[in-house]
Structures are given as C-alpha cells and as structure tokens.
Amino acid sequence: MELPWNMVVVTGVPGVGKTTLCRSVSKDLKYNYINYGDLMLEIAESRDLASTDLQMFSLDFEIQHEIWKSAALKIKDMKRVIVDLHGVDQSKIGYIISLPVEIIKPDIILVIESSKDKIFRQRNEDAKKRINDTIESLTEHMDVLRNMMASCSAILGCNFAILKNDNFEECLIQMKNILSTIN
Amino acid sequence: MELPWNMVVVTGVPGVGKTTLCRSVSKDLKYNYINYGDLMLEIAESRDLASTDLQMFSLDFEIQHEIWKSAALKIKDMKRVIVDLHGVDQSKIGYIISLPVEIIKPDIILVIESSKDKIFRQRNEDAKKRINDTIESLTEHMDVLRNMMASCSAILGCNFAILKNDNFEECLIQMKNILSTIN
Amino acid sequence: MELPWNMVVVTGVPGVGKTTLCRSVSKDLKYNYINYGDLMLEIAESRDLASTDLQMFSLDFEIQHEIWKSAALKIKDMKRVIVDLHGVDQSKIGYIISLPVEIIKPDIILVIESSKDKIFRQRNEDAKKRINDTIESLTEHMDVLRNMMASCSAILGCNFAILKNDNFEECLIQMKNILSTIN
C-alpha cells in the first residue's frame, strides 16, 4: 500500500495520550515514528551537552533553540513519517510554538484533544508529566494549541484534523482512517 | 458611487445562507459576483475533465488543486468583486483552507455564521448540502473556519468581520452597510 | 539587571486596563514605554495633519496607514521597550490588526483580558473609551484579538502569554514575573 501522507505532525498537550496513539498507528500503518523531544536529546547527547531532558532544558536558550533547529533539519526530508511533538509549549513565561514551520512542511497536522479529567489523571500517573496545572490554565493551553495549529495549517495550506482521545480504541481507528486515506 | 472594496471574500459553512446573501448584496451594490466552486467547474468543463461537481471532486487531488489555482489566478486582478467560497472545507480527512491567500489578497474577509439549528434545517432542504453532520462536528467546523479566516486577516493585514445570519433581512442590511462604507 | 526581552508588545481591548499595567511595569522594571496611539498622534502633529485623536482618525485612510507605518519604523529597532497597542481595532466595518508584524518583531506578545463587567465599568468611567458595545460584540472582539495575536506568535515564533486583569495587583505581579524572567 502506498501511504498517502509523507509528513504527519501530531500535537497535543502533555497527558493527552499522543505518544501511545502515534506509536500504535506507526506500527500498524508502517509509518516511521519520530519523537521530536527524543531526537533533540539525542542531538544534545551526541554533542556532550546533556544526557537527560532536565539537563537539556537547563541549557542556555540559544543552545536549546539551535538543537531544536538541528532536529527540524534532520526531519524535514523524511518520508512517511509521523512526528510527535507538543506543538505549543507552556511555561511560566507563556506559550511558544514548537513546530518549526519554517523548516518542516507537514501534509497534515493533527491535534489530539481529550477531556480535562482524563488529562489530569494521566499526568498524575506519569512522573515525567507531573505538572502543577489548573483547569483554567489547561483550558487556555488547549485553546492556544488549537489556534496556533489552525494558523499553521492555514499558512502552509495543509490538512488539519482534531481528534478526541476520550476512548483510545475509537481514536486509534479514526486516526488510522485519516492516515490511510488517499489525500 | 465609488465602491470602497475591490476584493471581498465571503466565507461560511454549507447551509449558512452565504450564497443568497452574496447574490443580493452584489445585485444591490453593483458588485461582481463570483462563486468559486462554479468557476472551478467551468474550468474543469472547458478542459473536458468534469461536467458535475461530483465528477470534479472525484478527480485526482493534484488536478483538483491545479483547477483551484487556475480559478484563483482568474479572480486575483478582478475589481469590485464578491468572491463566495467556503473558506475551509471539511471532509473525512479533516479541514483544509480553500482561500488561496498566496494568490488572492482580499480587502476584507467576511465570515457568515448562524444558529446550528438554522444550518441543519437549511441542509435538510437542500439536496446538494445533505451532509451527515453532528452538532459537535459543526461547532468544530465553525470554530476552525473563524480561526483560519482570522489568521488570514492577520497575515494579510486586511479587514475581518463576522456576521450573524439569524435573520436574513438584518444580516443583509449589516452586510450592505459594511460593503458600502468607505474604507 | 539585564532585561530578558527587548521588544514586548502588550495588547487588549479598550477598558481592560492595559495602559495602567504597562506604565507600572515599565517604571518598576525600567523598560521604555511606548504608547502606539500617542506616537501616531505625535507624528501627525509634527506634519501639521492633526492635533487630536479625533482629527487623526478622520484623516484619509491612506494617510492614517502611512502614519501607522512610520510609527512602526520608529519603534522597530528600540531596545527594552514595552509597546502598548490594541492589537486588533474594532469598528463598524469589522476588525483590523493594528500590530505591524511586517515591521515590528516582538520577543513576546501579551494579551490582557478581564471580566466583561470590569471592562464595561471602566469604559463608562473613561470618556475617551465611551463605546456603545454589547456583551456579544465584546466577547467576539476578545476572541478575535486572542486568535489574531496567537497567529502572530505562531508566525513570528515569539512567546505569547494571556494575563487576566481581574485583580490589578495580582496581574501586575504576574506581568512583572514574566517580563523579568530570563528568556
């Protein structure tokens, strides 16, 4: 089977279940799977700059930015790839887009959403995602993510879909339907 | 009377009453009226590629895209024109912008909205617009349309207005007020 | 102390308390403060075109646009500056972005929001901001502002934060925290 999409970008707030979905779909539909954060860490390790996420995110902002760009350049010409990234990062100084639209031109951008309850439960189970967050702040983050990804889709002229991950199996089927449909 | 706007783009989801409004305003204010979909079909017909919408939308995606671009190139230098198009198309693979911002630079983008009830009633009456849709999916479509058109307006630096078509006569007056106001 | 941001853009609808916040933060953190509207009026005055806001906004649209661009060119290379502007202007012909993204490249865009009640109370107290507005129209304006500023942030790759000014002291602390944090 010829896969219809060369570059798929999958975004979502931490705890939404994005990575589990991406890994399942990649395996089932034979897409290459790239975790953007893991690739950044690999690059940082290869340059002896950091060996953990915590170390990497403590690096000088300019250096982090350079690693982020290097990762984008590695991804940009890949074929049949699902790129798993937040899309928009939230920190104490607000939001910043983490999709490098200048370099990576996806054929489709997916935003995974789910109920706030489910996201909070997931974050509590996952030490890495233990974020001190309120319902207001999560609502705002999800709104900004949807906004910014829709903007990117409008600018790039690429497809855009929002998937609800309230039931994993249903969301998986929906995602597989989209990613196996001839564009 | 000198018309204040050369290029007016009017968008809205199917069933919102966009075309009826555009035709009335064009007639009353002496704008040229262009239906983007009809123009695409004309181009497809002139090339012996399709003679119905259904045939056109069954063409290879690359060919559809080429027809879409040809239509944009025909419209781009027109004067005093109202261009009637969806703005954002919804399909089983998500959303895609249908306003070719690279080619057409509107002076103003209008988004027509109305109550979901009214939209569903209209779609049931109109065989061509018989879309199997839920309230959630329609809400999302309207949200994505507003988002993407606001992005286009921000990028192009053009005016942007949202009109509620809950009462046809009132909406018509509002639209005529905007489109006869000196910019 | 080295300030982390060179170009800060602060936006919000009239009556949200933006200017009071900007002036306090500028004073406390030693940022330069620029009111975009005041700068436009200065330029208009220096060219003998207008001596009040009302006169300026009655000028030919082309001339207003030229003054708007001149103001942007004056601001663009400034350092450690807080630029106070609406972000999106609302008028009887809809919305138009007032942030000149082609010229001014902020490091961070802030959107100040507050409860609609508070905004209406403030507008009633302030003769200059006496705007005949409904709750629906204000809600729409705030939504469009957030949308367009998020788009600008996505395009420019700059930080983006939304601050709630329901309690002035709390909002001031939050804004000072963001604007004194090393980026």
Helix content of chain A: 40-55%
Low-pLDDT segments of chain A: none
Number of strands of chain A: 7
pLDDT average of chain A, as an integer? 93
- What sequence of helices (H) and strands (E) makes up the elements of chain A? EHEHHHEEEEHHEH
- Helical segment tally of chain A? 7
User: In percent terms, what proportion of residues of chain A is strand?
Assistant: 15-25%
What is the CATH topology classification name of the domain at 7-35 and 81-179 in chain A? Rossmann fold
Describe the structure in your own words.
Three copies of one chain form a homotrimer. The first copy, chain A, has 183 residues and is α/β, with parallel strands linked by helices. The first copy, chain A, has a domain at 7-35 and 81-179: 3-Layer(aba) Sandwich (Rossmann fold). Chain A is 48% helix and 18% strand. In chain A, the strands form two sheets. In chain A, strands 2-3-1-6-7 form a five-stranded parallel β-sheet, sandwiched between helices. In chain A, strands 4-5 form a two-stranded antiparallel ribbon. In chain A, a hairpin with a 2-residue loop joins strand 4 and strand 5. In chain A, helix 1 packs across helix 7 (168-179) and helix 2 packs across helix 4. At the A-B interface, helix 6 and strand 7 of A face strand 5 and helix 6 of B.
